[in-house]
Amino acid sequence: MNRAYLAALIFTAASPALAQSTNEANPAKSYSGATADFAGAGAPGEWTSQARDYANTRFSPLTQLTTDNVNRLRLAWTFSDGTQYGHEGAPLVVGDTMYVVSPFPNTAYALDLTKPGPTIKWQFDPNPSPQAIGKACCDAVIRGWAYADGKLIYNLLDDHTVAVDAATGKQVWRTAMDKVSHGVTMTQSAFAADGKVFVGNSGGEMGVNGWLAALDVGTGKELWRAHAVGPDSDVKIGPDFHPYYPWMQGKDLGVKTWPAGAWNTGAGASWGFVSYDEKTKTIFYGTSNPGPRVPVQRPGDNLWTSAMFARDPDTGLAKWAYQFTPHDQWDYDGVNEAVLLDMPIDGKMRQTLVHFDRNTYAYTIDRNTGEVLVAKNFAYQNWSTGFDMKSGRPIVDPQREPKPGVKIDKVCPPDIGQKDWEPPAFSPATGLLYVGVFNICMGLTDHEVSYIAGTPYDGMEMQRYSADGKDGNWGGLIAWDPAHGKKIWEIPEKFMVMSGVISTAGNLIFYGTTDGWFRAVDAWTGKVLWSQKLGSGIIGQPITYMGPDNRQYVAVAAGVGGAAMVQKGRDGFLPRGNTIYVFSLDGEGIKATGDSLPAPVISSDSGQ
Amino acid sequence: MSPARVSILGLVLVVVAAGATGWVLSIGKQPENRVAVAYPEGLAAVVPLGISAGHAPPLAVPPDNPLASDPNSVEEGKKLYGQMNCAGCHGYDAKGGMGPDLTDTEWRYGGTPIDIYKSIYEGRPQGMPAWGNTLPPNTIWLLVSYIQSLGGTFAAAAPDEGDASPAAAQGQGARAGQRQ
Questions:
Q1: Under 8 Å between Cβ of A223 and A214
Q2: How far is A458 from chain B (nearest CA, A)?
Q3: pTM for this one?
Q4: Mean of the per-residue pLDDT values for chain A?
Q5: Whether A261 and B6 lie within 8 Å, measured CB to CB
Q6: Which of A2, A302, A373, A510 is the most exposed place for a label (fewest CB within 10 A)?
Q7: What is residue A532's three-state secondary structure?
Q8: Each residue's pLDDT tens digit in chain B (180 positions)?
Q9: Do B88 and A205 touch (CB under 8 A)?
């Protein structure tokens, strides 16, 4: 591959024209013409935030690993944190240090990459309350952590946000955000931008009151908090709020679209990833399902649950919102990430966000207005018979609407969607997004429930199974053209694909399966170039980085858990684990040598 | 569902009609995140938390489920299991989810009837609410009856024994102790 081309790719945010003129080995023409602003990324060899950049592309400009040599990837070193819950976060690499936070009890580690790995520089034990374990719906996980201003910042399961000095491992501040006794936990990945850290709550199954808050990076002081339900004052909706569609316009819709008083336990938690447009100063994030999960108990659209907000990071005030699944009847949520891309749609350049919703629509939305430009299914679903582009609402099949005590044999997707929180990656060369998906359905019986603080406000009894029957596949990896709403290829997988995906300038895509396969794929063709089975299923987010030895490494955690546990009991499903695996070409790396190696001592009476 | 029913949902203070048992329970005071220290009437405070090494002192009262011979208690307990949101954590099939499986023979805090009673009454450190704040003893015993019917519990220890024995029907998976 041509070095000049690569430099151009990195520094001009991948002009499709350049890709066309210089990349002769491949089809070369970007499928979508989409480009990204890689603002917020660290140095090319670093991985300093969960998504690597504010736009949430998970694209690395590194090129040492290519489609030609990736089959030489071998294990360089591993690190185990000893915990038993799902491992969902991405390790961060800042300078010569890797930062890792374990699931509960949320222990943080700094690993010195200049030494034979893993060498612990410091360890920080925050000692969160174990009460939180039993309040977390879907395992005592953490989906990531942030680095900003010399601090590692992350959420504790027991509703605190903590900042740790990245050099010393000492706590700088700890801010109490909510109460575990109310069923609230925090599993979201803190997101740092603009001198602030944005954190949200979990507990969509517990009748919580959902929120996203901004804290000052330096002090941990809460700057603002915006709820997803309640009056406009709680939701931080003011005169500058301009939702695109008329049905989302009006006063206090976070109250009026609910039965009297029901909004207060209506959830709308924010446990997904946040993205940031530096140019327009806007943050984007999604909200969870409404509570209770039984829809007959909450007639109405239930705003602003299962929705996306665009907000001003300084004031928290909403700019627009869009609800993906009005009156969400299946726990589809709207928490999945927004990937910020610019692309031509119908001949006109648009500033968009791309969002793969759990409801199985892939949306390309004008990120300045909230107008839906593309809404197409990226996998199999049967709850919606179509999408009304004029109103911006999906059309619901009444046969899939649950009634208490009546079993529906097949609703697709089930509660966890055909794509859950696991984030996709974008390639500026192909113009495609690469997404881990599911291929599953549920049998569903609803039960009416009462609100009892600190217990589930839930009511869904479910059995999940492959959409293709008893021996069918449960997942896959797809390549998606967001401008045309088209799937370009798919790699079918026997088990759900619930890992993050990354893309590199070497035209490589990395992902993992929930039965432990870690794979490298050609970004253009989807051809699997390398696979390694790890010790547990993969629900972590891979990263790639340049070590101090100028080698490109790829790292991922294998530690199955979370929603992937719906597959427990299937043949081939591996036990839980807790290990980060780090790979390099031929497994080369910084090895222990010379004086640091133990040497045998020959006994004096050995007879030699 | 009636409009009146809808209107009470979402209130932090909820009155739950406990169906078959006929009790009305006020959940105004929510369970705190701590192990309650009060014991239900009629139970001595010397009841051990679980089986530790050696023999625990004998109980002052027979620790068996007083509703063991009530043929309706299992069905009523099952209804309560749904109404009190137990199913939300432990699963509609009781095979676990957010909370532990209640059908197997692993009991962190003991698997005899009084152990299970105490876990429900006191709450447990990993998120189990302390239902002793809101449920009367008879209601808790109904829940114990339902959990006993699932087959993984242990028989009550005889008054002169410190150890509990596995229930007869447990088969190969049964264990005489439990994990702590």
A1: yes
A2: 6
A3: 0.88
A4: 95
A5: no
A6: A2
A7: strand
A8: 344 443 433 333 333 333 323 333 333 333 333 333 333 443 333 333 444 455 555 444 447 999 989 989 999 999 999 999 999 999 999 999 999 999 999 999 999 999 999 999 999 999 999 999 899 999 999 999 999 999 999 998 765 554 444 443 333 333 333 332
A9: yes
Nearest to residue A395, comparing CAs of A359, A345, A344, A444? A359
Q: Which residue in this structure is represented by tokens 């529906």?
A: A408
Judged against a pLDDT cut of 70, whether residue A557 lies above it is answered with yes
Residue A205 known to be catalytic: yes
Q: Which residue bears the tokens 């936070």? A: A101
Query: What DSSP state is assigned to residue B34?
Result: S
Amino acid at A380: Y
Contacts of B10 in chain A (CB under 8 A): 207, 258-259, 261-266, 451
Task: Write down the catalytic residue from A289, A302, A336, A439.
Answer: A289
Q: What is the pLDDT of residues A566-582, one digit of tens each?
A: 999 999 999 999 999 99
Distance of alpha carbon A580 from alpha carbon A341, whole angstroms: 30
Any idea how long chain B is? 180
ipTM over 0.85: yes
Nearest to B85 among A299, A452, A461 (CB): A452
Give the nearest partner residue to B99 out of A134, A266, A445, using CB atoms. A134
Reply yes or no on whether A158 is catalytic: no
Query: Which pair of structure tokens corresponds to residue A355?
Result: 């969002």
Cross-chain Cβ contact A454/B30 below 8 Å: yes
Q: Say yes or no for a CB contact (<8 Å) between A132 and B89.
A: no
pLDDT higher than threshold 70 for residue A206? yes
Q: Exposed, middle or buried by CB within 10 Å (0-12, 13-18, 19+), for A267?
A: buried
What is the nearest CA distance from A248 to chain B, expressed in angstroms?
23
CB pairs under 8 A between A and B: 107
Q: Where are the alpha helices (DSSP H) in A155-282?
A: 232-235, 253-256
In the set A205, A328, A337, A481, the catalytic residue is A205
Strand partners, B94: none
Q: How far apart are CA A263 and CA A254, in angstroms?
A: 7
Closest-CA distance of chain B to residue A87, Å: 17
**CA-CA-CA-CA torsion sign (A448, B131, B167, B61):** negative
- Mutate which: B98, B103, B139, vs A, most A CBs within 10 A: B98
**Per-residue exposure over A104-132, b if at least 16 CB sit within 10 Å of its own CB, e if not:** bbbbbbbbbbeeebbeebbebebebbbbb
* pLDDT for the residue A303: 98
CB A244 within 8 A of CB A320: yes
Q: Which of A132, A449, A451 sits opposite B127 (nearest CB)?
A: A132
Q: What is the total residue count of chain A?
A: 608
Contact criterion met (CB below 8 Å) for A274 and A49: no
B1, B12, B89: residue with CB nearest A456: B89
Judged against a pLDDT cut of 80, whether residue A491 lies above it is answered with: yes
Contact assignment for B83 to A205 by CB distance below 8 Å: no
For CA atoms A504, A506, A508, A510, the dihedral sign is negative
